[in-house]
Amino acid sequence: MTPPTPPPPTPTDPTTSSDLALLEVSSPVARLTLNRPDARNALSLDLLTALHARMEELEKREDITVLVLTGAGKAFCAGMDLKQVLNVPGAPARLLSSLGEFTLRLRALPMVVVGRVNGAAIGGGCGLACVCDFAITHADSKMGFPEVDLGVCPAVVAPWLVRKVGAGRARRILLGGGLMSGQGAFEAGIVTQVVPTAAELDGAVEELVQRLASGGPHALRATKRLLNELDGSLDAGVVRRGAGLSASVVEMPETQAVLRTKLGM
Amino acid sequence: MIRTEVSGAVGRVILARPEKRNALTPAMLAGIVAAVAELEKTCGAIVLRGEGEVFCAGFDLTLCREDKGVMGELLTGLSRVVRALRRCTAPVVAAAHGAAIAGGCAMLGGCDVVVTDAAAKLGYPVVRLGISPAVSAPTLRLLTGDGPARERMLDPGLIDGRRAAAIGLAHECAETAAAAIERAEAIAADLAAKPRGGMAATKRWLNELDGTDRDEIMDAALAASMALVGSDEERTRLAQLWAKQDRKQ
């Protein structure tokens, strides 16, 4: 009998996992920061693992009413780190599955979640903005779903965008690909508020967070729970099927060829 | 009366009965289904448009005057067109120029992207004739949400292109009918240039998410419209329409 082949090593991030997702709590507000600024906070397996660990903490906390999700540096989140997984068999499926599970946990958090979209929110990154209950950006940020331009399928984020903007508008956005400005994202309904410049972002986030935090914590939790039930947010099956579909498209030879060219590999 | 064209990676399905404002016959509806099936084999995107001033004025009801069975054929044919547009692997862009009324408006629900123009007239005046637009309810409510869909299906009045874009019935509103066609062509060319495997998978997934891949939803909507075919109300109101048309002549 030949021993089983060990799985190929997954490239790891130099920083430790807890540093990749920073959690600061100042009850009743908490801030979760994607902290991989050199990679524009692209979602690697390590970053997602760190985010999952933070979810575990947040799911237990009863003293937090509002969570702010944001990115360190200039970008909010540049999307899936496809470069890292492209040549590793099985890795796209693990990455997409981890993203799918993260979106479900983020949505199911009992506290109100505000996306502070400080810069580029692309593909899976724009999907995270859709999962948040609120999202604020500035007029010049770059947002959108360019998956179809790369030959991949935005299947994990599609259910979240459909819930956010409706099926008809989501279809136009996802099949059209490309990017839009923060102002465009506001007009499309992807973000709930836009400020003219990046310098005005923190003031607007602070104002919204304070207003939200003035609500009764139990009333907010009960309302969010009901909204999640009504719009099917707790249907894990659809997100899991989406992750499987998305991974199967990434692993198609046609897609791999397009990705190598477009990502310059 | 259905013409197809191919230029580059874009295919066109053109309703070509301009002298009747592209009013739909059962043969035209079957022709659209066949044209889409043919074009999707080679094209990366499809444009659906009309020849002449308007996209489509709806069913050619004069056919129902001679043959009582035609109404059922028209409704069934329309339901097949909406499913064919939706399930075609290539994305479909509609140019709803000038007018998209009743059956013409219903076809928009099958399309992935809809462009109209500011002066275009859209809506479902058919309840006045005792005909139910229920056949297109599943796709209309996906475009506009439930509130505006209810309003549009129950109110026989028409809305203009700007209002259509505001409620989501159209994705874009151009200034003129010519500009709407031009814009639909440009969007189709852009979509057609993208890798096809990912595009087809994404469209299929969106159909699964919104339920338009499920025949039972589409069948139930068709059945609701079919249930009124040949009803006293429909016959009386159509007879009034014929009498009015005869007086005009």
Q: What does the secondary structure layout of this molecule look like, with pairings?
A:
The complex is a heterodimer of chains A (265) and B (249).
Chain A: H1 17-20, E1 21-26, E2 29-34, H2 45-60, E3 66-71, H3 82-85, H4 91-108, E4 112-117, E5 121-122, H5 124-131, E6 134-138, E7 142-144, H6 158-165, H7 167-176, E8 180-181, H8 182-188, E9 193-195, H9 201-213, H10 217-230, H11 236-250, H12 253-262
Parallel strand pairs in A: 2-3, 3-4, 4-6, 5-7, 6-9
Antiparallel strand pairs in A: 1-2, 7-8
Chain B: E1 2-7, E2 10-15, H1 26-39, E3 45-50, H2 62-66, H3 70-87, E4 92-96, E5 99-101, H4 103-108, E6 113-117, E7 121-123, H5 137-144, H6 146-154, E8 158-160, H7 161-167, E9 172-174, H8 177-192, H9 196-210, H10 215-226, H11 232-248
Parallel strand pairs in B: 2-3, 3-4, 4-6, 5-7, 6-9
Antiparallel strand pairs in B: 1-2, 7-8
Q: Key features?
A:
heterodimer, A: 265 residues, alpha/beta, six-stranded mixed sheet, three-stranded mixed sheet, 15% strand, B: 249 residues, 2-enoyl-CoA Hydratase, Chain A, domain 1, 9 strands, 16% strand, globular
